[in-house]
Amino acid sequence: MKKILCSSLLLTLLVFSAVSGNHSVPPILMGGLLPSSEAGERVITLTGDGATFRGSGIAVNGSEILLTEAAEYVITGKLDNGRIVVDTGNSSEKISVTLAGAEITCLDGPAIYVEQAEKLRLYMAEGTENIVTSGTEALLATFDDSRSAAAIYAEDDLDIKGPGKLIVNGFLNNGITCKDDIDLDGGTVVITSANNGIKGSESVEVNDGTITITAGNDGLKATSTKIGKGYVEINGGSITVYCEGNGISAASDFVLTGGNTELFTNKQPIVKVGGTVMASGGAVYTNGELLAFD
Q1: How far is residue 175's CA from residue 192's CA, in Å, rounded to a whole number?
Q2: CA terminus-to-terminus distance, the chain
Q3: How do residues 154-210 score in pLDDT, each as one tens digit?
Q4: How far is 87 from 33, CA to CA, in rounded Å?
Q5: 95 burial class (0-12, 13-18, 19+ CB within 10 angstroms)?
Q6: Looking at residue 141, what is its pLDDT?
Q7: Cα separation of 189 and 152, whole Å?
Q8: 3-class DSSP state for residue 95?
Q9: 110: preceding bond cis by omega (within 30 degrees)
Q10: Distance from C-alpha of 183 to C-alpha of 229, rounded to nearest angstrom
Q11: CB-based burial of residue 117 (10 Å sphere; 0-12 exposed, 13-18 middle, 19+ buried)?
Q12: SS3 of 246, please?
């Protein structure tokens, strides 16, 4: 029965490809590498100035693609100047978006904007490179705080994982901004930003993955003053930060239990905390020197 269902799904995708502008079936779909077969039922193919799609919970208005149901989606193709907007309303279910060879650019705002969702799980499909960009590279030399958009901007929780690659270009402001909790749980993530690399208001937590940040201000940053929030936590992974500000900035605590972190900056302090440093494992190097926590 499982084999029949998989064959049926592949046939459906081939038919969809034939009737939606001759876009070929993404190799990631044909390779059977999606998190689940259900994701193949909601496929979005970006077409430069718009998109074609199959499945419910998707609306296309010019170059803006709106996802409205807490389900699994797959996005492939290229969007030259538009955005993906996630708004599942008051649903308590999580939404999953698999980037399977997607390039999304928004010249004047976030390329991926989570307006409302319980949590967005952003997944980079195996063997794919995905690029999310806000603004243009020329804006890096003329940065000012009035440009508030991040390339990926989430009003709610955000979880990023691999095993693929994600390139984030925050030429307008931050690379990734999350107003709640952001977790990085795998994959290869490369961020270039005019301001902060990753800014999670409530928390930033790294559990796995290879992360490289080049930032005009802070590298990893959490800002909330709520009790129990505003912390940066590193439990695993490999992190390299080149920045003009603090390598790590936490309004409350910095928790280190694992991973290997390298911070390169002339800003002091390199690790800035408003609370306590709790180190029980892992290593942090600052400008090539092992940082010892008292």
Answers
A1: 6
A2: 60
A3: 999 999 999 999 999 999 999 999 999 999 999 999 999 999 999 999 999 999 999
A4: 26
A5: buried
A6: 84
A7: 13
A8: strand
A9: no
A10: 14
A11: buried
A12: coil
Q: What is the number of residues in the chain? A: 294
Q: Is the dihedral of CA 108, 109, 110, 113 positive or negative?
A: negative
Strands 129-134 and 95-106: parallel
Rounded Cα distance between 187 and 160, Å, is 8
> What is the rounded distance in angstroms from the CA atom of residue 226 to the CA atom of residue 204?
14
Q: What's the gap between Cα 192 and its chain centre?
A: 13
- Please tell me the predicted confidence (pLDDT) of residue 20: 36
> Token pair for residue 158?
């955000």
* Residues forming a β-bridge with 240: 212, 262
- CA distances from residue 19 to 2, 42, 263 in whole angstroms, order as listed: 26, 15, 50
CA-angle at 153, arms to 249 and 209, nearest 5°: 60
d(C-alpha 239, C-alpha 5), whole Å: 41
The angle subtended at Cα 76 by Cα 75 and Cα 77, nearest 5°, is: 135
pTM of the entire structure? 0.86
Residue 212 has pLDDT above 50, yes or no: yes
What's the number of CA atoms in the CB half-sphere (13 Å) around residue 178?
Answer: 27
Rounded Cα gap, residues 3 and 23, in angstroms = 25
Residue 286 to residue 212: CA distance in whole angstroms: 15
Whether 176 and 152 have beta carbons less than 8 Å apart is answered as: yes
- Across the beta sheet with 271-273, the strand order is 58-61, 64-67, 83-87, 112-116, 152-154, 176-178, 198-200, 220-222, 248-250, 271-273
Beta bridge partner(s), residue 222: 200, 250
Indicate the domain borders of the chain.
Answer: 43-290
Residue 204 structure tokens: 């930033």
